[in-house]
Each structure stands twice: as structure tokens, then as C-alpha cells.
UniProtKB/TrEMBL annotation:
The keyword Electron transport does not apply. PANTHER family: PROTEIN SHISA-LIKE-2A, SHISA. One of its GO terms (cellular component) is membrane. It comes from the Eukaryota. Keywords: Membrane, Transmembrane, Transmembrane helix. Residues 4-48 form the Shisa N-terminal domain. It is found in: Membrane. This is Shisa like 2A. InterPro entries: Shisa, Shisa_N. The gene is SHISAL2A. The chain crosses the membrane at residues 57-90. It holds the Pfam family Shisa_N.
Amino acid sequence: MSAECSGYLSADKVPVSGFSCPRAGGDARAVYCCGFQDVKYCCDDPHSFFPYEHGYMWWLSVGALVGLSIAAVVLFAFIITVCVLCYLFISTKPRSKLDTGLSLQMAGSETRGSSIC
């Protein structure tokens, strides 16, 4: 089985003549024409030809990098905010127990100053 890669213009606008797969001296399993409109090669995956230019994938990669960078910055800002809020919550807690104003006594015990006659 063999496939024909038609001629194309490379990314540098240089014409490249067509060739058949597998290429002489190449992998015998690489029987499919793969790549992009401006970069073609032989491979063993029948679903590896993309009908657009290789530069298009570069811009998709740059877009993905920008999106992931923005997401990382937002996540970092969220984590910093949570840490600051936790620190403020912990540092503003009162250090001693609150005085309720009532002194509790055990049942049946006497209070000071009172005498039983």
C-alpha cells in the first residue's frame, strides 16, 4: 500500500514536488501522507493530514499559551487573596477569653460576705 503526497508550496513559498509514501530509505510503515498544506511527510497514521497551513497551528499554540497564562495569573491572585484573608482572620481574633460579666459558682457553694446564722 502506498499514498501520494501531492506537490505543494512550503512555508517559505518554495515549490516542493510530490512524492509517494513510503519514501525510499524511510520507514516501511509510513505509508500515509501526513502534515499540513505547506509541510508534508510520510507517517503511519491515516488521520494525520490537516488541510491548513502549519503557521495556523503556531497561532493556535500562541493563543492557548496566552489563555493559560491569564488563567494562571487569575489562580495565583485568588490564592494570594485567600492567604491574606486567612491571615487577617487569624490575626484579628481576640487573644484572651471574653469576659461575660457573670461569675459562675458551683451549686451549693457559699458566696463571700454572706454568713449563715
